[in-house]
Specification:
Shape: globular
CATH architecture of the largest domain: Beta Barrel
Order of helices and strands: HEEEHEEEEHHHEEEHHEHEHEHH
Radius of gyration: 27 Å
Helix content: 25-40%
CATH superfamily of the largest domain: Catalase core domain
Distance between the termini: 92 Å
CATH topology of the largest domain: Catalase HpII,  Chain A, domain 1
Number of helices: 11
Structural class: alpha+beta
CATH class of the largest domain: Mainly Beta
Number of strands: 13
Strand content: 15-25%
Number of domains: 2
């Protein structure tokens, strides 16, 4: 043996090639990577190269495993802690990255950063989801779909946490646990999964007449969309936009898919769920990776206190809508999803949305359901993600709009201006 033991160790190992990599194979058959090359090396979380990832360190050839094997302890500990509890609702979801491009400054009604400049592109992350089913349920369940958007603005993150249906089951968050417990599978048998076709839910619905409007929506085509790409989104609640002077305007948010609305029939949904329970996930992934980027237009219903006083329903009631023929939707920008996630667990599964995450220029109203969500979302994230520091991770950390992004936004705005001017010239 040499002074450092390298001679004997090399003689005991056979050099073999796997593809374009040369590794060593020890007498037991396990492979040892070479740390002398320039290729990428397997390391511990502290950056220490790992020569054997297949066997624990032992006292002798057949001896007991040694506690000093820090790589073994680190690998097993990481594995034991790598999962988190699934969401109570919206457990099955799929997300993608993109941007929101503002059409024109809205400084007269809000000082919110995403609406501050023509052509400004704000990075976003969007997560679509079903509501009642668990992570392993099928995509084509008859259910509400979540449509949650995280805007990474220059003044912090804004979460617009909505659904594909413009109303909700209840008016007050006090009833939310009761509604969710009723909608989940029967507690004694654990089924039916991802559907409310059982007595618990209909007992609840019969005792809560304010849910009647929502029932009409979930029994319609809206509850079995053909694709996330053909699905509308709504903020559900009434919010406030606030300008630099402190003047506020009521607002309801609408996402309109540029490809229009499409749904499937119930017998189609049943067949698709059986053949491909990941149908919606696969559709969105394939569309983005093939360059067919889905797009939605953001529209606002804007009104003042005088309209609110005259309207026949309470504008803060989330079980009601303001008809678009009464109050038209004003298009203000577009959402484009152009990048799939690189790590589903780190990005889509660990992302955390909260209605209380707003930026200057966007504010709450006294809607009791919204006020309850502001508390509940953060509270459940503390449980699901293990503590209050989750906001610094990956898709939850505050974003930055780089100078390159701003440059693209200005270039896009100039191009749109030229296109508009050209069209106007042709019309004349």
């Amino acid at each position: 043996m040499t002074a450092n033991g390298e001679g004997d160790r090399d003689r005991d190992r056979e050099q073999v090639r796997y593809g374009d990599q040369q590794v060593f194979r020890a007498p037991g058959g396990e492979t040892h990577q070479s740390v002398n090359g320039t290729g990428q090396r397997l390391t511990t979380q502290q950056g220490v190269p790992v020569s054997d990832d297949q066997n624990t360190l032992r006292a002798g050839g057949r001896g007991p495993a040694l506690l000093e094997d820090f790589h073994f302890r680190e690998k097993l500990t990481h594995f034991d802690h790598e999962r988190i509890p699934e969401r109570v609702v919206h457990a099955r979801g799929f997300g993608a990255h993109g941007y929101f491009e503002n059409y024109a400054p809205l400084s007269d009604i809000t000082r919110a950063d995403p609406f501050s400049e023509a052509g400004l592109r704000t990075p976003v992350f969007v997560r679509f989801s079903t509501v009642a089913g668990n992570k392993g349920s099928g995509d084509l369940a008859r259910d509400v779909r979540g449509f949650a958007t995280k805007f990474y603005t220059r003044e912090g993150n804004w979460d617009l946490v909505g659904n594909n249906i413009p109303v909700f089951f209840i008016q007050d968050a006090m009833k939310f646990p009761d509604m969710v417990h009723a909608a989940k599978d029967e507690p004694d048998r654990g089924f039916p999964q991802a559907q409310t076709a059982h007595d618990n839910f209909w007992d609840f619905a019969s005792l809560v007449p304010e849910s009647a409007h929502m029932l009409m929506w979930i029994m319609s085509d809206r509850a079995i969309p053909r694709s996330f790409r053909f699905m509308e989104g709504f903020g559900v609640h009434t919010f406030r936009l606030v300008n630099e002077a402190g003047q506020s305007t009521y607002v309801k948010f609408h996402w309109k898919p540029t490809m229009g609305l499409q749904s499937v029939l119930w017998n189609e949904a049943v067949k698709i769920n059986g053949a491909d329970p990941d149908f919606h996930r696969r559709d969105l992934w394939d569309a983005i990776t093939q360059g067919a980027y889905p797009e939605w237009e953001l529209g606002l219903q804007l009104f003042d206190d005088d309209f609110a006083d005259r309207f026949e329903f309470d504008v803060l009631d989330p079980t009601k809508i303001i008809p678009e023929e009464v109050l038209p939707v004003r298009p203000v920008g577009r959402l484009v999803l152009d990048r799939v996630v690189a790590n589903f667990f780190a990005e889509t599964e660990q992302v955390a949305f909260c209605t209380q995450n707003v930026v200057p220029g966007i504010d709450f109203t006294n809607d009791p359901l919204l006020q309850g969500r502001n508390f509940s979302y953060l509270d459940t994230q503390l449980k699901r993600l293990g503590g209050p520091n989750f906001a610094r991770w990956s898709t939850r950390a505050p974003g930055r709009i780089t100078s390159r992004t701003r440059g693209r936004a200005r270039k896009a705005a100039r191009a749109r201006t030229r296109t508009t001017a050209s069209a106007a010239t042709r019309k004349r």
